[in-house]
Amino acid sequence: MSGKDKKITLTTQIFLGLVLGALFGFIFPEYGAKLKPLGDAFIRMIKMIVVPLIFSTLVMGIAGTGDFKKLGRLGGKALIWFELATTVALFVGLFVVNVFHPGVGVDIPVPADAGAQAAAAAKNSVDMVQYLVNVIPTNIIDACARGDMLQLIFFTCFFGVGVAHIGKDAEIIVNMCRSIAEAMFKVTHYVMMLAPVGIFAMIAYTVGSFGLAMLVPLFKLVLSLYFAIVLFVFILALSASILTGVNFVQVLKALKDPLLLGYSTASSEAALPLAMDRLEKLGIPKHVVTFVMPTGYSFNLDGSTLYSSLAVVFIAQMYGIDFSFSQQLLMLLTLMLSTKGIAGVPGASIIVIAGTAVSFGLPAEGIAIILGVDRIMDMARTFCNIFGNCTATVVVSHWEKESTAESMKESYNKNFNS
Predict the structure, then answer these.
(1) 3-state secondary structure 124-186
(2) Mean pLDDT of 333-350
(3) Which residues, if any, are the signal sequence (predicted)?
(4) What mean pLDDT do residues 82-102 have?
(5) How much is the average pLDDT of 27-46?
(6) Residue from 309, 389, 387, 378 nearest 347 by CA
(7) Residue 207 and which of 200, 334, 336, 342 are 20 to 30 A apart at CA?
């Protein structure tokens, strides 16, 4: 690597793409709005890496170790942490919305078709029983084509167990998967060279299409969500640090590239390959990373969960409806269940918020009002989702004694502090 490359890090390049894209979209909105295809192309290039990477690394981890009891413990501990983290996220959202009252004083005309939008969203509530049934793929090729993480993990776990039981011939498959994984990480490196351009295009499109003026009426809501996410990230990092002894300041520094990429693109999937690479360089074993991270994308969307509780109360405040604390606690219990099935559902957060608002007698038309700033809030939610899953991976790895605070510190000094 040349001296010039060292001066301009990937993080700096992504940040410059973010800032320059916003300026370009603001100054030249007509041209900025036309850059969406360029941003979409970058996201698609990253998403094409995810399926072969998850499949190869997970098969390698399961078949390579053959310890199926360990896999069961890993899944159980991951689910326990997911439930704890999402519950804290719900309470943080509830706390902030009751302190800041972002919905009080908001006076924005409701669009004419808001009722139809809300009704459609409320109807699409998530059926948890069917959701669990759908975890089992009928066609693994179709599941891969749709990028369904849970179906992919379900099949790959069974496949990995099968490979582990075929004896000596398993070595061929494991070695092939190892080569595929290494190739996919190399492809990730190539694609990330285009990250600044892709992010420039996406931010220019967002600002050019919607304008910065959209933030003014709902600035308090955006501010409340950002504050809630900062508070939650602090609580999560502090709790995980106490449990594991890991310095999460170093973890944040190591993850700055995938976190900034996820924030800029508002796409958790776009940051997944890079986040997995950084976690492995922090000393987390590959089989832990490849199991916990994709599973978390379905069960541990902390940012989206936090936003759900905040948005429902925001709607009540906006319409001046008395939403008692006991009703809010009941709403939390509802969201604890409904938010577990939102991954992979288009417009998932809006669907859950609409369904919850309607069930508590709140006018779901208020959703149409917050859609104008949803992109800005989605960026923060995505950042939180990624950090939450990375934190879960670190914690579960320590619970399984797969890594220690000392080993992670050594890995950090070796790979990130040179």
Answers:
(1) CCCCHHHHHHCCCCCCHHHHHHHCCHHHHHHHHHHHHHHHHCCHHHHHHHHHHHHHHHHHHHH
(2) 63
(3) none
(4) 93
(5) 88
(6) 378
(7) 342
